[in-house]
Structures are given as C-alpha cells and as structure tokens.
C-alpha cells in the first residue's frame, strides 16, 4: 500500500480536492495574460514620420485639401504602394504630388529619416510601449526583445523555483510567487523607461514560472489516480478562458499601463487566500516531516467529511504505508539524478524534446497576431476559443487512448497543419487563418497533455526539479520562436518548415515515453526504474502497479496495455531510446 491508498482513506476526490483544485486554478485566468501580454502592451500602431515643425497640419489648415492628401506631400508610399512609408519622409514638401494629373517620378525624390519622431494612429491602441518609447524602424527589434527577456525570466524561474520547491515545499514557493508577481507586475505598469520595464518583466516571468510549476505539482499530489486526467484537462480551461479575457481587457483599456496593472493586481487576492492551501503530504513525508504530513491528512479528512479517519490514521500507519519512500528520502537529489539512471534518462530526454517543440510551435503562432489582417482583438478571441474543442478532444484521448498516444497525435497533427499552410496562397487569408487556428489548437492540446504527463512520469522526490528541467527547454523554445520568423526574408515558407519539422521530431520522441494511464504516481526514483527500466523486475503489487497494468508497447504511435511476459517486455523496451 502507498500514498494513493491513504488518499482514498481520507475521502479520495472530495470537498477539499474540489476547493483545492479550483483555488489553485483560478490564477490560470491571468497566466495567459502574462504570456501573451506583449501582443497588446507592445502592439505596433500604424505610424508615419512626423511632419517638420514648420509644416504642421495646423499651419497648413488654410489649404482646402484633406489631411490625407497633405500627408502625401511629405511622406512617400511604401514598396507595396498601399500605405505610407513608416520610416522615411521627403526632404522637401512635394506639392506637385497633390495635383490630380501628377506624373512626377517619386523614386527620384530625396528622402530622409524621421528626424522629428513619429505620428502614431490611436484607432487600435491608445498607447503602447512602441508608441511611448518609439520602438519602430531601427529600434523595432527592441519590441520583440521585451518578450524574449520575459521568457528568459520564465526560464530562470523554472530552474530556480523548481529546485527551491523540492527543498522548501510547493506551498511556500507558490505563495511567494503570487506576491512577487503582484508587486513586480504592478511596478512594471509604472516603469519610467524601457530598461526598467524589461527588468520588471524578467522578474515577473520568474514568478509566473513559479506559479505554474508549483500549482501543477500541488494539485497533482493531492488528487487520486483516476481523477488526474479529468482534473488536469479541466484545469487547463482556466488558461484557455484567460486568453479570451485578455482580448476583452485589451479591447476595453487600450492603454498598456492600465492593462499591465489590471492583469497583475489580482495576484494580491490569490496571495491572500493561498495561505489556506495544505502542503503536499507526499512532499512532507519524503522530507522527513511526517508529523506535519499527518496533520495535513487529518485536515483533509475533516474537510472531506471523514472525521472517523482522524483517530485511525496515526503516525505509525502513515510510516508503514510509506516506509519505502521514507527510506529513499534520506538521499538528496539534484538535476543530475534526472539523467543518472536508464529509465529517468529516457524520460527526461524525450520530455525535453516534447516540451521544446510544443512551446516553439505554440508561441510561433500565438505571438504574431497582427500578420493575419484581422483585428488583433478578434484574432486573440478566436485563438482562445479554438482551445475549447481542442482540449475537450484531448480529454477524450487522454482518458481512452492514454497519455503517449495523445501526446504524439497532437504533435503530428499540428505538424501536418503547419506544413499544409505552406501551400495555401497568401491571398487566401481566411484559409490561412483557419489553419493557423487549428494548428494553435493542437499545440495547445499538446501543452495540456505534457503538463499532466510530466507530473505523472517524474517521482515525488524530484518532481519539481524534473518539471523545472524539462520546462526550461519550453522557455528556450518560446524565446527562439519569434526569432525564427525573421527567416521569412530568406524564404517565406522557411519558418513554417522549421515549426512543423520540430513538431514531427517531438512526436517521434513522444512514442518512446512510457504510458501512465491509471497508474499511481511514483514517489521514488526506484519506483520509476522498477516500472519502466529494461533491467527491472516486475513491479510489486503493494506498490499499486502490477506487470499487467504497467506494461505497454508503442508501435507506430499506438499504445497497448495487453498482458505480456517479462521476456516480451524486455524485447519491446530494449530498442530505440530505451537503450539510453
């Protein structure tokens, strides 16, 4: 018997678990706002060079000519001929261009840079970091640098908070992360300069990583085995709905400072009620705090309406259930232990590729909404809405087909859609937008799957370190995704080829991950090795997993949980990445 049996004794998935999951999931409504905030905070309004001070529109108001016509005398058209150039103006006003039968050769007219700054259109955005700090033309790369710096913070947070939570507990680090994001997020809304804003966004990204990683682990470690799939998928809908909330808030406010403040201030509310959370009893036991773990289990039993369990569940009973785990907890673990043994190494290598490619493709699609020729607010709403059917589909797949098949299928299908978009002509904008939405939906479903899958694959003693390790690659993917868009200057289809190829590679690696459907969470590295290592003996019954339940074979991406002999198990797992 193990911790899963103790959970059933104190009520299984009862009243406490419902409250616990709901309260931890609520901040997810604003996590989407943090990750996708740069689409609106640093949106690029239509703009052109400001007119010379001695030729302002106010001084020329006595001419009976429309404003748009006046501007053409000062600003040339861009290479497409459909809009004003954003970075050049004529050295001298070209009044002849206002004549109806004008035949001037505009290519011979002298131009110069925007010496008097820029004029920004405020019909779509009232104020953004781009318009406030003039991050256009030669400074345009600084606009994307904000997102890269933020994702760098998320990367640093995954590394730092992953290790800290395994040492100090999920609850403590989660509470601190709420406070850090509330303070630093609101501070970024008051940033006096570009540099200060980047610093605040980096530190906010660290806090976001702490909230997401510790929230996932704290939920998973209090949920019985059978309910993990349902809870994991339904929790992800908070993030999906948050994308639609972001679109509504951005459309309503249209000012980057107000939007930044509104999406960060609620963190103080989450911080205030997070003190009610119960620390993971699994973590407490494995960190030699059995008395605290017992108090936590008693509290959960009372909330779940099982007061009679309080007298029955003693320290001796707890220790007898988790004796093996307690013995293993005497060792300390580092990131090296994720690669030290065969099964852990196989899992970690495969998850690194899956996390990188999922994030790479996801943010490649989600962080460039202005290219679709549709209102950015509508596009964000559509991208959020498409996640609902995608994640419902993922829920069905996770429940009936298993984690491995679901993960591989989502990656392969998203790759096919991304490749298909290469062959759609650029003038068929609606079709390209539809395919982009479908691709985004499947990459979102892949995210849902990999978060749940990772929490089930890594053992409790090193789960947060593992989550931090593999999600590090996701942050690198999210940092690299926008940079790949520059490749369209070399060959227009090249970014899509890179995104799609990465998803295909990850789908192949996902096929080598072990199945975890209806299998209790592993608590120690030994549990992982016994279940999924080539040289392991059959898992023992008292650990909650039999050979019949724990064995699965992946052939062509299809999972099977049929009974096999130990010999067949060794033959099946002795190939491919298992040999690592």
UniProtKB/TrEMBL annotation:
Superkingdom field: Eukaryota
Q: Which Gene3D superfamilies match?
A: MFS general substrate transporter like domains (1.20.1250.20)
Q: Which residues form a coiled coil?
A: none
Please indicate if the UniProt record lists Transmembrane helix as a keyword: yes
| Record Pfam families | Sugar_tr (PF00083)
Stretches that traverse the bilayer = 145-164, 173-194, 200-218, 230-253, 259-278, 347-365, 377-401, 408-424
Where does it localize?
A: Basal cell membrane
Write the protein's name: Solute carrier family 22 member 6
What organism is listed for this UniProt entry? Zoarces viviparus (Viviparous eelpout)
């Amino acid at each position: 018997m193990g911790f899963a049996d103790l959970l059933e004794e104190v009520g299984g998935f009862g009243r406490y678990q419902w409250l616990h999951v709901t309260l931890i999931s609520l901040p997810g409504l604003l996590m989407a706002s943090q990750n996708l905030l740069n689409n609106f905070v640093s949106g690029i309004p239509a703009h052109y060079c400001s007119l010379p001070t001695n030729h302002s529109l106010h001084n020329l108001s006595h001419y009976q000519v429309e404003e748009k016509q006046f501007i053409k005398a000062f600003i040339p058209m861009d290479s497409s001929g459909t809009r004003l150039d954003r970075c050049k103006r004529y050295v001298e006003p070209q009044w002849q261009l206002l004549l109806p039968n004008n035949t001037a050769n505009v290519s011979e007219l002298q131009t110069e840079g925007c010496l008097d700054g820029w004029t920004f259109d405020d019909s779509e955005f009232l104020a953004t970091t781009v318009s406030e700090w003039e991050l256009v033309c030669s400074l345009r790369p600084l606009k994307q640098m904000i997102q890269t710096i933020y994702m760098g913070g998320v990367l640093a947070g995954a590394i730092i908070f992953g290790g800290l939570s395994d040492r100090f507990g999920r609850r403590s680090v989660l509470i601190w992360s709420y406070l850090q994001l509330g303070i630093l997020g609101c501070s970024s809304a008051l940033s006096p300069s570009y540099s200060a804003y980047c610093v605040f966004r980096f530190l906010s990204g660290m806090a976001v990583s702490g909230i997401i990683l510790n929230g996932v682990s704290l939920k998973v470690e209090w949920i019985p085995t059978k309910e993990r799939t349902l809870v994991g998928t339904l929790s992800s809908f908070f993030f999906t709905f948050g994308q639609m909330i972001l679109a509504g808030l951005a459309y309503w406010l249209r000012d980057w400072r107000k939007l930044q403040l509104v999406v960060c201030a609620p963190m103080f509310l989450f911080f205030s009620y997070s003190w009610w959370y119960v620390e993971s009893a699994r973590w407490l036991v494995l960190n030699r705090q059995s008395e605290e773990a017992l108090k936590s289990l008693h509290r959960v039993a009372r909330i779940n309406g099982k007061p009679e369990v309080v007298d029955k569940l003693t320290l001796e009973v707890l220790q007898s259930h988790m004796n093996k785990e307690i013995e293993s907890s005497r060792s300390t673990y580092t990131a090296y232990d994720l690669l030290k043994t065969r099964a852990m190494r196989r899992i970690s290598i495969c998850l690194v590729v899956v996390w990188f490619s999922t994030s790479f493709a996801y943010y490649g699609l989600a962080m460039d909404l202005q290219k679709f020729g549709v209102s950015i607010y509508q596009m964000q709403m559509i991208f959020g809405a498409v996640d609902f059917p995608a994640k419902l589909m993922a829920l069905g797949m996770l429940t009936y087909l298993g984690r491995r098949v679901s993960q591989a299928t989502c990656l392969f299908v998203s790759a096919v859609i991304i490749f298909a978009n290469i062959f759609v002509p650029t003038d068929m904008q609606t079709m390209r937008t539809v395919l982009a939405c479908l691709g985004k939906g499947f990459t979102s479903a892949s995210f849902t799957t990999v978060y749940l899958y990772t929490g089930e694959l890594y053992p409790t003693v090193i789960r947060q370190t593992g989550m931090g390790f593999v999600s590090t690659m996701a942050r690198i993917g999210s940092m690299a995704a926008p940079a790949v868009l520059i490749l369209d200057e070399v060959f227009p289809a090249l970014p899509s080829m890179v995104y799609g190829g990465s998803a295909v590679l990850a789908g192949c690696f996902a096929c080598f991950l072990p199945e975890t459907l209806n299998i209790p969470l592993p608590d120690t590295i030994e549990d992982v090795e016994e279940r999924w290592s080539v040289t392991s003996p059959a898992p023992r019954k008292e650990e909650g997993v039999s050979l019949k339940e724990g064995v699965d074979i992946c052939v062509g991406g299809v999972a099977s949980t049929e009974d096999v002999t130990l010999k067949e198990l060794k033959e099946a797992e002795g190939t491919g990445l298992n040999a690592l």
